[in-house]
């Protein structure tokens, strides 16, 4: 039940920031990712999940250093493959709560194909994409979400490749919970986390998280304190189960709306595989592994 | 047959020890299935059997052969030459008559084949197979069933056990529509009752096997490998389709749910290996696999598994390379990739299976090592093992079966996931750590707690840790087993599926009076520790393998052995024609490197 409602509450462990903090983050001062991390601590504390059953996983990138800063079982995998890695963890163990953190390069560029398949297969997990529109760890190259005209070391004259539309990409992947938030809006971010965790399936959140070093001010347009507008989706108007309406929201001009774009209950891969096992075992009369294998060998005599 | 005949009975019956029967036709003619029936029958008759097949890499159709060697006593290879050729078409005759032994029997479909009337080297037996099959089945113009008609002919010629064959048909076709099994029997009966003695002057019968005590099972190498994984407790895995690995993943996908497990067909090779590593991180023994091109794609993630020190089984059913190469041919050109394929110094374990039975036991051993040393283990098989059928003693499951475990024990206060003083085991999520500091598992160089460390001394120490456990495994390996002379002129060294033809070549060389031994290396990384001493006892070490001699004149294992042992006696016999070694090719190679006459003087 990786991101399904928690069946078991924490019995031991300290689910406060004190108990959940590990290494001091290596991020630059002012980085948006600090807020993403703080909101994660608070969400875990609020939900009271058993600490040893929380898994914090990541790929490669600035944001993917995340697991080292969280005192849970952690895994820092290779670039772009955090989703299939996490899918194995999720399918392998029904008792774990699987969280994956990563950036726009990890999610939309090198790992883009995995997003499409994790979405359509609907693995139980929560995936947070900390989108900063730039490659930060490698020091300012164009990212798949860099807007046209963005000057980077690989496009000093201004990027001209059309950027990925993150929400359109996430929606078309088949993900069953798709939301968007802003790292400066802690309360909203926590609400999105909480709803994502409670969603039974592949839940994904794009967090606009500013890189103060290489793309300062990138998300000011969505930050009221910087003169922008943080427009939250009104769910009395927007039907979150309506894919066409969600896609229409994804086409709205920058900075676009924040909140839950889409949510639908669809059987998870975890559940479908479990059903397959149950049906198969019923058909064979619940034979022991040894008897099953013996019968297979007998058929080859 | 003639060469190993023992008696000639007056009743026109010749007792033979073994026979090589080559069936040549098109891939849609069902020659694979009659080959399979023959193999299963041999297995059930306590006979040894080995098969060899070629499949065109086209989707449907095209020339194809199935060769069965069956008999009493040890059958080591599928045979260089056929005693018996069954040719369905002119192209089958043209393409394969060269493989028929002089004095051998050519059985052909006289509706399609016209043998060279000037060629008197063979016993030629023409039967209008197509017409008679159509007649027997009541006018199907598609000539379906002529494979079974031919099997009927073979059953008569070789005095096969018809009752056992009928039981095999029933098992194979019993679940289908009633008329399917009826047509099978009709076609078979028509072939069996054909008056073959009008054109052939004798029947052949196999020597009765003296050993009837053990139950045999008959299967191909991919099936044996899959069953080995299940026996060893593998319940999770992920893969992506590629020839010739696909049949392993298909079987795992179909079988594992019965055992409460999951096998995922992933979106690509990168996802497949990553998912398998995810299973492993979650505490489940897991497998991924592929063939060369897919293994190349998995390499980065495999490096992570070495760094993170997780157990993982990786199967490579090798085919011809490089690149897309020869998808349906055999080669052993992925050895160095298996050992060194990831970036950085990335030690892991590499084992190679020697025959179909060994695919089963190698899988068991790989799983044991992966868990004991918390390390990725490669199992190298190849195209020839994947699809060939052999009979072997049914494994004793009560002794071999391993129950899968999930270790979620509490870890003590101060638990270090990468303790430098010992071989560590992964603590999967769900396990509590006293004191509440949870481990990180990472591909970054790390300290004993799993947190990143750029400390130069720590990198050296962790590198030692990952290397030393592989060397600890090397120390635990059993002594190398040498067949034949334990010192002398030449030691033939091989790995993987070359076991059969090398053994047979060495037996023939021993018969010729040569002082020769055979060593098949199954632990390729780490190598056994006793090779240096063994190699010193022979004048020449000839390493036989199906890969290229490379830029410096040595095949891949030969290169490794020369590098490790600096022994100039190590020579290389390598080839890349995409076919298994013939016994004669190995004998020629031995002669070339070590002329018998010269050494006898």
Summed up:
The complex is a heterodimer of chains A (301) and B (601). With 301 residues, chain A is an alpha/beta fold.
Structure commentary:
- The complex is a heterodimer of chains A (301) and B (601).
- With 301 residues, chain A is an alpha/beta fold.
- Chain A is 33% helix and 15% strand.
- Chain A has helices at 17-20, 33-47, 82-92, 104-110, 112-121, 166-172, 186-198, 243-250, 269-283, 289-298, and strands at 54-58, 73-76, 97-103, 125-131, 134-135, 141-142, 177-182, 202-208, 259-263.
- In chain A, helix 7 links the parallel strand 7 and strand 8.
- In chain B, strand 4 and strand 5 (63-71) form a beta hairpin.
- Chain B folds into four domains: 2-213, Pyruvate-ferredoxin Oxidoreductase, domain 3; 218-400, Thiamin diphosphate (ThDP)-binding fold, Pyr/PP domains (Rossmann fold, 3-Layer(aba) Sandwich); 407-476, no CATH class; 483-600, Rossmann fold (3-Layer(aba) Sandwich), CATH 3.40.50.
- By secondary structure, chain B is an alpha/beta fold.
- Chains A and B meet through strand 2, helix 3, helix 5, helix 9 and helix 10 of A and strand 10, helix 7, helix 9, helix 10 and strand 18 of B.
- Strand 2 of chain A pairs parallel with strand 18 of chain B.
Q: What are the main properties of this structure?
A:
heterodimer; A: 301 residues; alpha/beta; Rossmann fold; 2 domains; 7-stranded mixed sheet; two-stranded antiparallel sheet; 10 helices; 9 strands; 33% helix; globular; B: 601 residues; Pyruvate-ferredoxin Oxidoreductase, domain 3; 4 domains; 6-stranded mixed sheet; 24 strands
